[in-house]
Automatic annotation (TrEMBL):
UniProt lineage: Bacteria, Pseudomonadati, Bacteroidota, Chitinophagia, Chitinophagales
GO molecular function: acyltransferase activity, transferring groups other than amino-acyl groups
Protein's UniProt keywords contain Acyltransferase: no
Keyword Transferase listed: yes
Protein name: GNAT family N-acetyltransferase
Transmembrane segments: none
Pfam families registered for this protein in UniProt: Acetyltransf_1
Amino acid sequence: MQHFLPNGQILELRQAVLDDAPVLLSYFRQLMSETDFLLYTREEAASWTVEEEREFIHSFSKDANDLLLLAFAGHQPIGTLSIRQNTFSKEAHIGNLGIGVLHSYWNMGIGRRMMTAATRWAEQHPQLEIIQLGVLANNERAIQLYRNFGYMEYGRMQKGIRQPDGSYVDNILMSKRVKP
């Protein structure tokens, strides 16, 4: 899928392939250096290798029940969205969502477009009925994005995230039914 961004660039959304590993690793490291809203630390991102990134992509591509969606502006990855189906049979109707966008591309509708594509994918998924996620309580933009897509808060783990500086943030748990 292609869309135009407010800055004139073309946004392309597509699933990841193994050849994306080097540029995706570079994107991942940059993303981790820009925000503390995600679960990985800068140090963890710096220690990843291209081969580990390739294995990560392969873990999605080998299983049609999972989605790894990439957002590109030109040849540069600028966003990722993943949904992993739970592996326990009693929870196989639940998928776990994660999303990230490079800071210089915030407020351009990229998260909304990725969420739209992921919602359509999940609605067509033969087993998924619920998508769930965790979001840091201080990530107000993300919380609003999720609410706009119909996600509801179903729990809050106080001090559920410990940042590298030792401070704590509540982890808000949200979910959405994608099928009745």
